[in-house]
Structure prediction request, 229 residues.
Amino acid sequence: MNFVHFKLINSTNTYARENALKLPLPCLITADGQTNGRGRRGKSFYSPDGTGLYMTLLFSPEKPLSLLTPTAAVCVCEALERFGIYGTGIKWVNDIFLNSKKICGILCERFFENGTEFISVGIGINLTTDRFPSELQIAGSVKKNLPKEELSRLIAENILHAVADMPEEKIVRKYEERLFFLGKEIEYQRNGVCFTARAIGINNECNLRVLLPDGSEDILSSGEISIKI
Ligand code: BTN
Prediction:
């Protein structure tokens, strides 16, 4: 694996995309801070200097990857455990929570340059960030200054191993074990309509299975859910 580190950059995912053809792959890009950290659905990711781990793993896949985001989420949780952080849970699809706070977000992007397929797995972990913008009520941090270089390497290596070798059933099982809201009521929107349902599990593609009040089942393949407390 190759490494590139920045003190400050706009976004490690943006850098990966703009330099994919030049970088030796697989490549782990890290930064101490980001000025324009990107999240899913066009949101930004708060990335203050020095208090978080901001990384992008860039590689060219050898086979089609269907479970990339769940794989990355499981790898982050397992790597954190190796550093003594227990009790992480995954909020479908790919937010990682600890003590009821979102401590990590994952943004996977797939793109093509000159006919070559690239994948970037962007991961942001709040390590010691203690103040967040007021709109990020749900954000929290690990509250430990973990060694960023070792942690990012371990996560990247785990992801590369998992996408190459781990059977899909195993990823699905590990992912489901970490979902912390199964059995609970959730809300989601479809075509502008709001539904309340009970999350009951996932299928082989890690889509979320929910039970509606009329007893019918629905399958969510993307989008945001909110968990009713
Ligand atoms: C989310 O919570 O919606 C996903 C957040 C992903 C943030 C990481 S930080 C490193 C990488 N660079 C980015 O601009 N985004 C990802």
